[in-house]
Amino acid sequence: MAKQTLHRFGLTRLLAAVVLLCLVVSCQREEAKTKKSETAPSITIAIENDIQTLDPTLLSDPHTSRIVWQIFEGLVGLDAEGRMQPMIAESWSASDDFKSWTFKIRPGVLYHQNDVFKTPNHTRAVTASDVVYSYVRFAKGFGSFVFAGLVEGFDDYLAGKAANIKGFSSPDAQTFQIILTRPDPSFIFRISSPYLGIMSPEAVETAPKAFGVTVAVGTGPFQLVERSPTQVVLARNPAYWRRTAGNLGQVVFRVEKNPQFRISQLEKGGYDVAQLPFSAVPSYITGGRLRSEFEGRLALYVARTFNVHYLGIDNKQVPEIPIRRAIAESVDKRAIVENLLHGLAVAASSPIPPGLQGFDPPPDIAMDRAAARHEVERARRPGRILRLLTSNVGIDEQVAQVIQDNLKDAGIETRIELVDFNTLISRIFSKNRPELFVVYSEWIYGAPELIMDVFDSHRFPNPNMFGYANRKIDAQLAQLPTITDRNSLNTHSREIASLANKDVPAVWLYHQYSPYLLRSRVRDFAVNGHQHWLLADVRVVDK
Amino acid sequence: MMMISRREVPQYLAIALLLALLTAGSMVVLDRPDLRSTLGSPSLLHWMGTDDLGRGVGTRIMRAAALSLGASAMAWFAAVTIGVVLGGYSAYRPGSWGAAWIRWFIVVFYTTPFFLVVVGVVGALGPGLINAYVVFALVAWAAPARQTAAMVDRLRQTTFVVATQSFGFSPAQVVRYALAPEVARPVIVASLAVLPEILAFDAALAFFGLGAPPPTPTIGRMVLEGINYMSVAWWLILFPVAVLALLCLAVRVIVQGSAR
Amino acid sequence: MGSDPGPEPSSGPVAEPSRLRSLASKGARALLTAAFLTVVVSSFTFLLFDLLPSDPIRVTLGPNATDEAVTRLRHELGYDRPLLSRLGIYMLGVARLDFGQSLVTRRPVVKDVLDAYVTTLMYVGLALSISIVGSITLLGLARIGGGRLQSLLLLLTRAVISLPSVVVAIGVGVAMLAVLDPAVSYLADTRTAVMAGLTLAVYPTLSLTEILVLEGEVTLRLPYVRAARSFGFTERYIFWAYVFRSAMLPWLAQLSNLAASLVTGSILVELIFSLSGLGRLVLQSVLRNDSPMMQSVVIVGVLTFLCVNSLTAIALRNLYPATR
């Protein structure tokens, strides 16, 4: 009996040892924690999901991109108003036939200091060959859809037939040149996306497994200090080439998946910036402005990014235009925008966000339930149930249910299939496409005429996810690269979108805004249309 | 008139409650979305308030309770039946090929993260509440099988069973008269205790966007969505959780009654 | 279901080496079983991942990528090969201790998985310890408090554990965040892990307490206990030496049953507290169809399961030499 009792206590001792071990291990990890900078102003930003890679070429999620785009920057970029700004490229010019684009690299743009540079001050200036290197590195990922079929020698390189890309060259250390296969006056707007960040070969190749993990060396306004699974700390780049109006010394990005906690911590001062989930919008916002009880403590910033949320229709499975028009006439966009999104969106009549380089949207298809019902009755095919695929991202699930209800009034029966976002994307590009799908697109181009590719019948399934084919529209699209005047481009794009609306390839639902709650100490916070957080110009005012 | 002892009253009440929920829930009419009355607090018209699409929460809860209850019961029944049969067989005839295979399957299913199995197979079979619970049954049979095997193993050697065998009863009769009564009750009782987990299971599915497609309400999903609106619309989480708790308590009362 | 004991060691001068040999053969057999189980479960997971409806390559490249880019990457990463060939390549890699690259991070999975494993072990270990110690403590308190307190405790316990464990975890976790509401700029991993452990521990603790109290009640009425009383042993001694010991068996059984709920609970808890443990990895791998990452998590899980199983078997054998 004594032996058993002893064994029981032996177990207890073992457990105590385990607990102790856990505490010891955790203390070790505690040491890796960073301390806030005592002197320079610092802000803490809550991000909604895990941090993936810090390598710009492997980037595919919006949360990590906010961080990566502080570290790396491209040749050009857009400001908060959507105007093209020179960045690493000081100036650029195009040949008369718009097939050759030459960029002058800004002299004296230094990389963040890092041991990968074997120079006395552990840094060096960006050269045109770095740009070539970066653009080639993008070739297999992000670059493949921006440059494929457009840049000389690009397709050969991807097919393995050439060792490098003829179209990217550096005639001298400060000049980068791109040769295209066809004229493209709007080409500059293709590369305005912050995805195309410039990297140095040393940073990537010295320790290939470390790049994007612990090594992220760019030229941006902030540089990487440390990184853990739940947190990334950036410090101001003291040698940044631009004199910024901002005074941030340090930015801490922290993963906070629990939306309630994010907001409650923001109110307490734990976070300075956090995205406001739509479920919490009524508590903080009324009439498009922050509620008065929060004035003085908090501020609201509503970002307008280049996106469109839409109900895609597989034109091959729903070929009858009257049915598609009936669908468009049944959906109550206004109710969705006002009641589900609390006014933080604008109803869409085309895939192009209004105001993009001055774009004026075409007229929308008016809601007309009676007409819709009439159309459906005329084209009556009894017993046909359309599959409506949606994901659980944002409010798409609710939008799908509203659409289902709207369509029921017109006599169109649907069956909702709810999947996760990745499955939705996979399904849209697979053979098992649904007839209808609720999805959104974030445009990476900065000009309307480049978004019009969505109507191009040769570009199926990407970006023409609907299988829309109209010869007249194709012809008009082919005309676009011959126009160089901005107003003309906008007008022509508007006409094409308007024409396409008659065939209803998809039902454009709304362009969504993103509300951010800020603590009042954060001033001049801005996000551009590409969802690039312009933190270099943020000022912190601590009384 | 049949006399019900005082001790059994809670049990019968619980069974009555569940039956009432099942019938009412199947017959109730669900509201259509009405975007002008979203997130309405409890009122005379909607006793439990309205949800984020303006539909009455009360009717949705009743339907959800009925659906979840029915589907969970089916899943449970399938899982326990498969488990008891396979587990019992593997312990009754331990030397056979079949038994070895079953034992291996039990271990494999036990160690694989179960929802991975669920997600994978439901992904292949397609969404739908019934599919999901069928798959759950496929996964959850391992635990009752393990338990049954252990019990049959123990009982096989007791004098009671050996005596029955030596009396010349066929294996089937041994199972029916000697083993089954002893094994069935504890296994059923133990597995009934897992029923609440099954009820909440569809919330996990909802996370991957699986399970009953909208607009069909399920208890698990209503609870998950309610959490998002906790600070704005307390009725969206309170009532589903209360009904879920009520369901689970009712099941527990029934289980405890049977255990006696 | 432990392994059967080896042959009886013969007595005499040759006793020592043959006992060592039997131990070694037992060890070898256990290792072989472990390896075989790992291979089987790993293959099973591999197969399941192939069934997932999302396309891992398309997901990695994002919705903007062209079909050509997707096809190219698929070929580069070897995903266009037939299923069995891929499985074979993976297994050969594992034999060389190369567990592949994650599709999401594009670097070896080993480090991420091990880091996450340590985090998960921390708070799961804490939860287990709290459950074990807590249930025994609550039992003791109930004993001291007497009949009324015991009934009250039993009632509360039953009310809570009749709810699904996930609901309990969500409720406790959310309440903890709301009540404690740490007003610090960020939570140190240890503090979060402690909160996570506490949250996860509530359901198992109460469940185990219920078993102990009930079994205790049943055993107290058994004849041999009454006999012990008549022999003059103190109530306290009878309780801890007899009653408690006999309640340990179902208690241990329930503990191993609760292991499953700890696993599912850990995923939830990691979501609520934003921890970076195995649960987060599992969720991410399934949503992103990241097969190599998931495989490694599964292997780690299998090995843990086997360890825990053996430990439980050893514990049982030592506590109850009669039940072999």
Topology record:
The complex is a heterotrimer of chains A (543), B (260) and C (324).
Chain A: H1 2-31, E1 42-47, H2 62-71, E2 76-78, E3 84-86, E4 89-94, E5 100-105, H3 128-138, H4 143-147, H5 154-158, E6 168-172, E7 175-179, H6 201-205, E8 222-228, E9 231-236, E10 250-255, H7 259-268, E11 273-275, H8 281-284, E12 285-286, E13 289-290, E14 298-304, E15 307-313, H9 321-330, H10 333-340, E16 345-347, H11 369-378, E17 385-391, H12 396-410, E18 413-419, H13 421-428, E19 436-442, H14 448-451, H15 471-479, H16 486-503, E20 506-519, E21 522-523, E22 539-540
Parallel strand pairs in A: 1-10, 17-18, 17-19
Antiparallel strand pairs in A: 2-3, 4-5, 5-7, 6-7, 8-9, 9-10, 11-20, 12-13, 14-20, 15-19, 15-20, 16-20, 21-22
Helix pairs in contact in A: 9-11
Chain B: H1 9-27, H2 57-92, H3 97-111, H4 114-125, H5 129-140, H6 142-156, H7 159-166, H8 171-192, H9 195-207, H10 219-228, H11 235-259
Chain C: H1 15-51, H2 56-61, H3 67-76, H4 83-95, H5 109-145, H6 147-161, H7 165-180, H8 189-220, H9 223-230, H10 235-273, H11 278-288, H12 291-319
Which residues of chain B form runs of ≥5 with pLDDT under 50?
A: none
What's the number of domains of chain B? 1
If classified by CATH, what would the architecture of chain B be? Answer: Orthogonal Bundle
Q: Strand-residue fraction of chain C?
A: under 5%
What does this structure look like?
The complex is a heterotrimer of chains A (543), B (260) and C (324). Chain A has 543 residues and is an alpha+beta fold. Among the domains of chain A are: 74-200, Dipeptide-binding Protein, domain 1 (Alpha-Beta Complex); 307-513, Dipeptide-binding Protein, domain 3, CATH 3.10.105. Helices cover 30% and strands 21% of the residues of chain A. In chain A, strands 11, 14, 15, 16, 17, 18, 19 and 20 form an 8-stranded mixed β-sheet that branches. In chain A, strand 4 (89-94) and strand 5 form a beta hairpin. The longest helix of chain A has 30 residues, at 2-31. The termini of chain A are far apart. By secondary structure, chain B is an all-alpha fold. Chain B has one domain (6-28, 48-259): Orthogonal Bundle (MetI-like fold). Chain B is 72% helix and 0% strand. Chain B is built from 11 helices and no strands. In chain B, helix 1 packs across helix 11, helix 2 crosses helix 9 and helix 8 packs antiparallel against helix 11 (235-259). The model of chain B has no long low-confidence stretch (mean pLDDT 81). Helix content of chain C is 78%, strand content 0%. Chain C has 12 helices and no strands. Chain C starts with 14 loop residues before the first helix and ends in a 5-residue tail after the last helix. Chains in contact: A-B, A-C, B-C. Chains B and C meet through helix 3, helix 4, helix 9 and helix 11 of B and helix 1, helix 7, helix 10, helix 11 and helix 12 of C.
